Amino acid sequence: MALPATNPAARPASSVSQLRADLRHRLTPVADDGAQLEADLLLMAAIGCKREQLLMAGDDPLTDDQSRRLETLVERRVEGEPMAYILGKREFWSLELSVTPATLIPRPETERLVEIALQAVTDQHASVADLGTGSGAIALALANERPHWQLVATDASQAALDVAIDNARALAVTNVEFRQGEWFMPLAGECFDLIISNPPYVADKDLCLQQGDTSQEPRTALAAGVDGLDDLRELIISAARFLLPGGQLLLEHGNDQRAELTRLLAAAGWQQIKCYEDLAGHDRCVLATRG
Fold first, then answer.
1. Which residue has the higher pLDDT, 6 or 258?
2. How many C-beta neighbours within 10 Å does residue 162 have?
3. 16-80, which class in CATH?
4. The whole model's pTM is what?
5. What CATH number does domain 94-289 carry, 3.30.70.1170, 3.40.50.150, 1.20.1090.10, 1.10.1740.10?
6. Do residues 51 and 44 lie in contact, with contact meaning Cβ atoms separated by under 8 Å?
């Protein structure tokens, strides 16, 4: 691919190949082993090309406008802004989702929730509530896999819901209804086959809230009290009233919370409690059936 040439009178511009190498070194402090991938993604965004075209560009220089766009993007990343917010998108369950600073950035480990839900619910016309939907990642992945399911996705943040609604439109998903409100408030006494949630589960003073992408994400989507269990407790205590007989509750949690969650679930009368690890081997999800 030949990129538009720069003004011959201007100073010589770096080639795409040279920029890839330079950016890798520049981004290493914030991206570590992912620096080359991030360099390529920022170049692709600045140029407006796909990866195959970028790799073919080789010795081509950037235009002045492309160089300015690239520098703006790189500066944002060097200052610690998450790549997902810079690019405005993140892939989840092979779906390209828009994300903004109003939403949590979807993570690969949360795909485990989707896998478990698809295995646990066999009814082809199931009703599902996704609480704290954020960008809509979980609800839209389930809706895409099960077009005959009827889903309700809620979030306390209207700004986050606006992103989720836009994602549903972009993906042409029509079997998800989005509602604004805290946890069960928008459900109006309805009952579902499955309630699923990736709630906040980080302790308020956990240092991870000050590190990496997490430091830039909405704190309300991450932190949940002194032990990180405030929202999980609320879900465990209240969910049964919104489930049909035999209905199930599926939650994501922190990798050090399994024992306490299973205790809370058992104390609240939940049955058939099953725990699951993520792909990295960390405790990550728990599934329980209404008693």
1. 258
2. 17
3. mainly alpha
4. 0.89
5. 3.40.50.150
6. yes
